[in-house]
Amino acid sequence: MKNLKIEIAPSILSADFSRLAEEVKTVEAAGADLLHLDVMDGHFVPNLTFGPQVVASLRPHTELPFDVHLMIEDPDRYLDEFARAGADWISVHAEACPHLHRTISRIKELGKKAGVALNPATPLSAIEWLLTDLDFVLVMSVNPGFGGQKFISFAVEKIKVLKTMIQDRGLAVKIQVDGGINPQTAPLVVAAGAEILVAGSAVFGKESYSEAIKALKEASKIAPKDLK
Ligand SMILES: O=C(CO)[C@H](O)[C@H](O)COP(=O)(O)O
Ligand SMILES: [Fe+2]
């Protein structure tokens, strides 16, 4: 686990929506690895954000890969549109997909990286049979819907068990973690096996995005036993 490259995916949920293009350029220059775009429909989660038009309008403003987190019911209806809009990675929620294998297959047919997101209370068994087909698993460490929530600590154990499942099968599936990630929680999830850290308020809520990203990357190198 020592030489793992940890990637930071700032979530624009906590950015200034009146200046999104500028915010995205600033966070790219600050060292972000991916841009996390939270799509919410007011049904699957109790909040509304934006759809493919906003994704498409941001696409010319950055080279960062777009990591689109779909917190929507019936995501199959919109996969093609998000792919056309410029999504590079697409995650759907297991809880929103009765035919998860079909949904993941479609994302891959569209040439995109395919991920499944799991709510905190959703067991890993929801993706066990599908692991070989996935590029990444998004472990939610808050109940989805809002930025700035408190990290749910049992996500650490869930990531550990998932990491073992992935290793036991000899797979290269990446673990992404989303919700309440900051320099205090980052070392815990990285030690457990997470490689992509989504961070909204811990980046866009700070004065300097580059300092914030650096702090997350530095914190990721700390072994939890060395935490004060
Ligand atoms: O999917 C999400 C919420 O549903 C966001 O990506 C997440 O909450 C980021 O915000 P923060 O880092 O402030 O917790
Ligand atoms: Fe997210």
TrEMBL record:
Q: Name any GO cellular component annotation.
A: cytoplasm
Catalytic residue list: D38 (proton acceptor), D178 (proton donor)
**Pathway it acts in?**
Carbohydrate degradation
Cofactor(s) in the UniProt record: Mn(2+); Fe(2+); a divalent metal cation; Zn(2+)
Write down the chemical reaction(s) this protein catalyses. Answer: D-ribulose 5-phosphate = D-xylulose 5-phosphate
Q: List the GO molecular function terms.
A: D-ribulose-phosphate 3-epimerase activity; metal ion binding
Q: What is its EC number?
A: 5.1.3.1
The family database entries (InterPro entries) matched by this protein are listed as: Aldolase_TIM, Ribul_P_3_epim, Ribul_P_3_epim-like, RibuloseP-bd_barrel
Supply the HAMAP family for this chain.
Answer: RPE
Q: What is the annotated role of this protein in its UniProt record? A: Catalyzes the reversible epimerization of D-ribulose 5-phosphate to D-xylulose 5-phosphate.
- Please name the NCBIfam families in this protein's record: PRK05581.1-4, rpe
Which family, according to the similarity comment? Belongs to the ribulose-phosphate 3-epimerase family.
What is this protein's name?
A: Ribulose-phosphate 3-epimerase
